[in-house]
Structures are given as structure tokens and as C-alpha cells.
Amino acid sequence: MGNEIISIQRALAAIIAGNDLSREDARSVMSIIMNGEATDSQIGAVVTALRMKGETKEEITGFAEVLRSHSNRVQTVQEGLLDTCGTGGSGIHKFNISTASAMIASAAGVRVAKHGNRAMSGKAGSADVLEALGVQINLTADQAAKCLDEIGICFMFAQLYHPSMKHAAATRREIGFRTIFNMLGPLTNPAGADRQLLGLYDIARTPTVAQVLGELGVKRAMVVSSLDGLDEISVSSATQVSELADGVVHTYEITPEELGLPRHELSEIVGGDADVNASIIRRIFKGEERGAYRDIVLANAGACMFMGGAAESLPLGVAAAAAIIDSGKAAAKLQQLIEMTGELAYVSG
After folding, report:
1. pLDDT band at residue 173 using 50, 70 and 90 as cut-offs
2. How far apart are the first and last CA of the chain?
3. pLDDT digits (tens, 9 = 90+) for 95-153
4. For residues 307 and 210, what is the distance between their CA atoms, to the nearest angstrom?
5. Gene Ontology terms, cellular component aspect (predicted)?
């Protein structure tokens, strides 16, 4: 569409005609939205048309690049830094598996910059459950960097790091279905994490999103979506994995049995509100849970260990995650995060 800056109207006309936007045009559209220059109707029309057409790698990358450029950044060493932020949107009210997995990976020595938000689709997002666990979530970028540097893990509350997303907030609430915005959160880690376990609601899109991560500079990633509808590695079904390594994406399936884990009914990993989910995580870390709750955390924590370089394979990662829980290190890491964020919040208060 030439080198001129595309307007929302021209972009919408192109998408409705079935044409893909170039990365540059996608950046232009997202810049208009993030600068508050698009109406709610225009934003809704663009994201709906993109959803119906199917978002491409270039479109998602362009949107993500602009959101990153508008974000508050956490200045820290990026090498080997892991995020476990997923899209949500599975429609299954599970507990906060990626949050528990992040804690275990950190306890194993992986540097974790956990990015997350309050619930968009489930009953409790990572911010909600961490708050219920006693973690202070409202850290500034400097405080998050200090937390990460001192104890090897931090939580970055998305609302504080992506202020420009306020321009799309009303549209997201009102249209009520998943759009490109659901994919953007996990693609815009404020600390620039270069390792990632990303759960995706749409199994058809795992290869595309893995390619986008590569375009954004991520070195190693697994984008996962289970055959039974989870944006996690499942212990009830096989899971599709698109793995990014050395700039190349390979897509394959893994089963619970290949990870050394038994199968469970999907209903056995259902959670509740933030307090219920916090209680589940505490019981897992105390060794009081030995069933589906523990096993699905092991599956996903094992992938975190593998991506973070703390294990040489997924099955070895699962075994290492079990050892971390049984040693008490996961519970100790959670307590360390509670205390560290409490101190930081007290000082700033």
C-alpha cells in the first residue's frame, strides 16, 4: 500500500477485502490506536476484521512492536530471562498453572520475569492469585528490576506497564470475544525476556505465534495449546507444541505419558477464585497435593525448566520440577517473593 502512513479506514477496507497488512502498515494502525487517535468503533472494526480474516505473522509482529515501544520497560540483564505469560481465553476455569510453574522454575535457578494481569476470561489472573498469596503486585519498573536482580524473580503487573492499552480497554470489554489483543500481552514482556513458555487459546495459531516470538528477538520458546482446549500443557490430552530454537520453529505433539505423568480428567484441574487458587498453589508447594493439580504444574514447570536451560529435555524438566517441590524450594521461593515485594512496597509507601 505504498510508503505512506495508512489510515484506519484504508486498513479496514484492505482487511475486509481479504488482504493482509504489511508489518509496516500494522505498525501504523497500532500506533494510531495506542496514541488514542482511533475511535472505539474503529478499533472494534479492525480487530474484528482481523479475527475473521486470520491474523498473520506480520500483522501480529507489527502490533506487538508498537505496544512494546509504548510500554514502561524494566532495565535488567535479558539473557536467559524467562516469562510464562499466556493468553488465557480457554473458557476452562483452571487454577493459575503458569504462575505456579514460574515460581518452581525460579526456585531451580532460572531467572523469571513474570508478566501478567487480572482475570480477563477466568476467575483469577496471575495478578489476582499473587495478590491472594500475599505478593505486592504494584511494583514500579525500578522495583521490579531490583526484585529480579536480588531474588531471581519478579512480577510485572501489565496494567502498570502498558498504559496506552487504556485506549482499547472499552472495546475489549464490549466486544467480548478474543482478538489480536489477547495475543499481544504474552508478546510484550516489559523486561525483554528471551525465553518463554506461552500458552495459546487457539491451537491453529501456535506455529504463527512462535514465529512472531522469533521476530521479536526471543531465542527459545514453546507455544502450547492442548487438544482438549487448554492454553497450557495438558495432563488430560495431548498438547500441540510449536518450539522455537535457533530461529526455527518445529511443531509436534506431546502426551502426559511422554512426560512421565499419568492422565487425569479435565475436571480435576478446575480452580476457582483467587483465594481458592492460592490455596491450591500453597498445597502443591507444601507437598499436600499429589494428583492432577500437582501433575499439570509439573508438566508446565518442566517446560519452563527446559526453556530456561535448567533441564536438557521436557521429561527431565518434569522430574526436576518434582524435586524442587519436594525439597521445599518452591515454597521458599514464594515466601521470598512475598517478603521482597513487601519490603519494596513498604519503602515506596
Report:
1. confident
2. 51
3. 999 999 999 999 999 999 999 998 865 579 999 999 999 999 999 999 999 999 999 99
4. 13
5. cytosol
Residue 52 annotated as part of some ligand binding site:
no
Residue 330 annotated as lining a ligand binding site: no
Tell me if 185 is assigned to a ligand binding site: no
Q: What is the pLDDT of residues 36-47, one digit of tens each?
A: 999 999 999 999
**86 annotated as belonging to a binding site for a ligand:** yes
Asked if residue 172 belongs to a known ligand binding site, the reply is: yes
- Three-class SS of residue 239? strand
What sections of 186-313 are H helices per DSSP? 206-215, 274-285, 292-307
Task: Please tell me whether 290 is known to bind a ligand.
Answer: no
State yes or no: 194 annotated in a binding site. Answer: no
**Residue 120, annotated as binding a ligand:** yes
- Is 41 marked as binding a ligand? no
d(CA 99, CA 317): 17
Other residues' Cβ atoms within 10 Å of the Cβ of residue 4:
9
Contacts of 85 (CB under 8 A, 6+ apart): 98, 114, 115, 116, 126, 185, 186, 189, 196, 198
324 is in an annotated binding site: no
